[in-house]
Design a protein that fits this description.
- This protein is an all-alpha fold.
- It has one domain.
- Helix content is 84%, strand content 0%.
- It has 4 helices and no strands.
- α1 runs antiparallel to α2.
- The relative contact order is 0.10.
- The mean pLDDT is 79.
């Protein structure tokens, strides 16, 4: 949900959309983890928030790797066409 909001509000350029979508999706994960672990320590709420935060960070990391892979493929295609 946060990713989609960042993507739609990121403007027309792909690089800007990616940056806004990425930062929007992980913006408050650390703060949420700190608040949940200190306020709800020892409860299922804290564990749930920690798992969600870690999954969200993992998803953002995998998305960044995929975007990088796509950029490398596009550069390779451009270099081959230039030959």
């Amino acid at each position: 949900m946060q990713f989609a909001a960042g993507w739609s509000l990121g403007g027309r350029l792909s690089r800007n959309r990616k940056a806004v979508a990425f930062t929007t999706s992980i913006r408050n994960v650390g703060l949420g983890l700190v608040i949940a672990s200190s306020t709800f320590a020892g409860t299922p709420v804290a564990a749930t928030v920690v798992v969600y935060g870690l999954l969200q960070l993992l998803g953002a990391f995998l998305l960044a790797l995929w975007w990088r892979h796509q950029a490398v493929e596009v550069r390779s295609d451009h270099q081959e066409r230039a030959r």
